[in-house]
Amino acid sequence: MESQINPRILAHSVSKSYKKLHVLQNVSFEAVPGEALALWGANGAGKTTLLKAILGLIEFEGQVLVNGCDVRRQGKLARTYIGYVPQEFVFYDMQVIEAMLFYARLKKIPASRIPPLLDRLELTEHAGKAVSALSGGLRQRLALAVALLADPPVLILDEPMANLDARARREYLAVMLGLRNEGKTILFASHRFEEVNYLANQLLVLVPGQPAEALDIDALRRRYLPELNLVLWIAEERRPAALSCLQSEGFHAHLNGRGTVVVTVAEERKMVHFAMLQACQIPVLNFEVEEVQAWN
Amino acid sequence: MELTLLWTIARRELREALHNKWLWFFAVGLAALGLALSQAGMSAAGYAGLGGFGRTAASLVNALLLFVPLIGLIVGAATVAGDRESGALLYLLAQPVSKAEVFFGKALGAALAVVAALGLGFGLAGMGLAFAGDTNTTAYLAMAGSVLLLALACLGLGFMISTLTRKAATASGAALILWLGLVFLGDLGLVGATLSLRPTPATLLSMLLLNPLQVFKLSAIYNLHSALDVLGPVGQYAVYHYGDRLPLVLTGLLLGWIVLSFATAYILFARKGDS
Q: Are the Cβ atoms of A93 and B16 closer than 8 angstroms?
């Protein structure tokens, strides 16, 4: 029986350079069963490079073990423990069921595993459709179904929700959370705070040319997301006055499409604006706080 | 390397390549060309017979020298670069398969597609020739064999181009340039070298044998006429030097090109992967 404390992914001093560009510098981390580790960083920070190294697809310095297998020496065996979901899924010219069968053969999985997976991810009714005819959300669910064919202990996802709308993202995150709670080890790259906040237990921040840094979610919020959007419901006839009141003090305030007043604020000063509006005799009927996405 | 995985990838690649309309356009075009030449040969000679077949086959050789390398290069160039550009290659390599299984699976699938297309083209052309009159079956089959080897050698060269490029369009462009080089510049280069350097027949033959298209041409003509006199002193020297071993030497050279091109392509692929 596998010990709960044995890491499923163990990375030690992983470094990768392309000519003079240091993409990864001494990245080290462990991920155990039931844990979701987020790789956070802007485009070009090295997230995909690190994922490729863990998949054993590129040369690198250091060591990566997946379920005890060295990915450089036993790459094919290590990948039997991994289900991989790319950012954008390319399935050739196939139907959904044909794609599932193809990858099941590659993973040496019996075809009988396919119907329950399609059911779980609500793809059964789409089985006969061409993959190219599916929406982005359905395609990513299909990618997840393929990744889960061999019931791997490790899931690696490279910004799988980047091209999904808000609703599809929420549904996908719920599925991912369920998988994490089932004991899967999840390693995912993201630059959306909501995804990291919802799913991740651990966080690794990648910045080009700098060593990777482990942070907790609150520290990430404070460092990279110092601002919030304060959404204020104000009576229609008082909105121009509210904007004028806030803007006169140098705050970025505007009306959004719903007619609410939106103010971008530093997190630690969000209550200041209520006091200001009260001083201008403008009542706030209701309010909401929104996270500002760092790299959207 | 697991053969079941290799075959799974080969089947998918075969299916993908068979959807390539240019492959079938070529196969039908080859058949039509063979039939047209046989008709032209018959009407010019006024009778059907061995001479008719020989004229048809000789004309076919020149056409094959243009089109067979092109189809091999284009099909080969489209394989790796296209999948790399779309992200499909990364995804395939992220499965529990080795780079060797992916590469040779794709190579096998593409090779089967090219063989299928050529088989159809040659089969239809052969039937047409058979209806037209006497056909030297042995010579025809020998020529078909040489064509297959040439196509596979060019497929290997296409794979080399594909592994070196990141985009399908770039790979196709490079394949076209290589085709031009092999078909036209190779001949022009030889003519230029002959005029300027005045090499001996032995040296000229060595230069000829560096180009797989010229190797095919020598093999095809020798299969038809059992002699290479039509090629002048170089042809006579080749027969004199190699004698009965000449067909084996030429076949061996084409096989060598296949092995060399695919081996080089694999080494490049193993190093580059999906990047």
A: yes
